[in-house]
Recover the amino acids of this structure.
């Protein structure tokens, strides 16, 4: 961490020295950002550019541009690795990572880099930026930064820390950095507990909800930038991960109507799409897409080895050299997932490549060559199933939970209807909801999280044995870079 920080700051210093010499010949440009005397916060345009830069770093392929979703899917049970490529998550799939593994180091680095940018922005707005753009716009911008910081800390917890359910958050968590680092110095910091990190995440999301706008004005901006419903929706995921089901219900009720068709009646009019295919095809800006990472032009390509299509579709069903194909014993073996379900007919593709005949791949992201498919982070379908699960865990065979489950299933399979008579108890309903999540969010990075938040054993796959919660590989080890340069970090989180 410190090593990376030194490199970043060195770049700032070099740029500053050049700017100082140049200033002898001409005044400071109003369109060129300098790091001195609060210049990044000197104009409204510069401040807005910094907000957009926060999203750009969140979009990085090593983070939410693809890798987070991939790691949390292939770590679980629905995939078989084809390539053995350690650069493209074969070690994560095989439960064989260590402190120096590529994914362990790169994800930690990019997530904390994004956190530091958010911290620097929040600090700068408090010092000078708010006075430039005014109270209302400042609240919007700081809300976006706090949402992105919460998202980063949540993402780190899912890979490097024990689940909240293991000791009610008492286990070691992460270094909780809340002040921007802009100078080279000893930045050693001990880990906070899992509960303390979650407390900061929920505080950031509460602050974001209060500060974010009700809408960002266009379908595009409502998909790729945070608005009020984005923060609320993400809180339903966070509280579900913590097992605080009453709070899931409280948050979800803010943006889910009491009866079908379930929609958000305030803020952005979030709702399920009538056709699930529309969520994954251009323009990617549906009301179901609560938050997605965009890739619009060739200059924004996430890179082939980061793109979701590269892992699950383009290299398998079309051109060979696949990274992962669907585990025949995984979710596609579920007989209750009917062959006529739109999620099968649209997204499960049999290979046409001779070497891969008999294998099936995921076609949600099929923008082959350009890899400009948006990467989904959260959809309205998840909010509905989060609420359904929370209600079932509290109230058993709950009528609204069943209605929410039906809303998601019948969007793609109108021939299936769940009824109260079909569930012997609340546990049976919860299991049905969990399986619906398994189908609905295949490839989107929720499967491993769903196992871990309930301390479930990750099933065996191919030649990889099952991973029980007691197995050290249940979570990733801490990044070796952090262990080397943070003298207070301590040892393993297991």
């Amino acid at each position: 961490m410190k090593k990376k920080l030194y490199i970043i700051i060195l770049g700032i210093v070099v740029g500053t020295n050049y700017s100082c010499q140049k200033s002898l010949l001409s005044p400071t440009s109003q369109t060129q950002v300098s790091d001195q005397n609060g210049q990044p916060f000197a104009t409204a345009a510069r401040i807005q550019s910094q907000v957009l830069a926060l999203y750009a770093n969140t979009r990085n392929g090593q983070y939410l541009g693809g890798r987070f979703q991939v790691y949390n899917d292939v770590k679980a049970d629905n995939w078989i690795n084809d390539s053995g490529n350690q650069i493209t998550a074969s070690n994560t799939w095989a439960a064989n990572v260590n402190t120096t593994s590529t994914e362990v180091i790169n994800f930690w680095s990019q997530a904390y880099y994004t956190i530091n940018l958010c911290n620097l922005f929040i600090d700068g707005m408090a010092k000078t930026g708010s006075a430039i753009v005014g109270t209302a716009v400042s609240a919007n911008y700081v809300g976006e930064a706090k949402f992105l910081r919460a998202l980063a800390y949540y993402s780190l917890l899912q890979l490097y820390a024990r689940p909240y359910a293991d000791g009610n958050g008492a286990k070691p968590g992460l270094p909780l950095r809340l002040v921007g680092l802009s100078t080279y110095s000893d930045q050693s910091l001990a880990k906070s507990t899992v509960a303390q990190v979650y407390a900061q995440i929920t505080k950031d999301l509460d602050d974001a909800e209060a500060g974010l706008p009700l809408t960002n004005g266009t379908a595009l901006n409502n998909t790729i930038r945070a608005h009020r419903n984005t923060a609320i929706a993400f809180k339903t995921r966070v509280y579900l991960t913590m097992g605080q089901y009453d709070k899931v219900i409280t948050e979800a009720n803010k943006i889910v109507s009491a009866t079908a068709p379930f929609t958000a009646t305030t803020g952005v009019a979030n709702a399920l799409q009538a056709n699930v295919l529309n969520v994954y095809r251009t323009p990617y800006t549906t009301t179901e897409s609560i938050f997605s990472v965009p890739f619009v032009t060739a200059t924004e390509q996430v890179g082939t080895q980061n793109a979701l299509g590269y892992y699950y579709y383009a290299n398998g069903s079309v051109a060979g050299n696949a990274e992962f194909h669907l585990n025949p014993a995984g979710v596609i073996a579920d007989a209750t997932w009917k062959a006529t379900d739109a999620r099968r007919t649209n997204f499960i593709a049999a290979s046409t490549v001779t070497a891969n005949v008999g294998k099936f791949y995921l076609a949600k992201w099929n923008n082959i060559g350009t890899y400009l498919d948006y990467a989904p982070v959260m959809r309205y379908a998840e909010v509905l199933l989060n609420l359904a699960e929370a209600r079932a865990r509290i109230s058993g065979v709950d009528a609204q939970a069943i209605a929410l489950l039906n809303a998601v299933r019948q969007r793609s399979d109108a021939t299936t209807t769940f009824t109260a008579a079909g569930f012997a108890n609340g546990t049976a309903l919860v299991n049905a909801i969990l399986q619906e999540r398994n189908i609905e969010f295949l490839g989107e990075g929720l499967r491993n999280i769903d196992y871990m938040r309930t301390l479930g054993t990750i099933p065996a796959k191919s030649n990889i044995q099952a991973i029980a919660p007691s197995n050290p590989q249940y979570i990733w080890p801490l990044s070796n870079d952090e262990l080397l340069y943070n003298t207070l970090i301590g040892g393993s989180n297991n």
About this structure: The first strand starts at residue 79 and ends at 81.
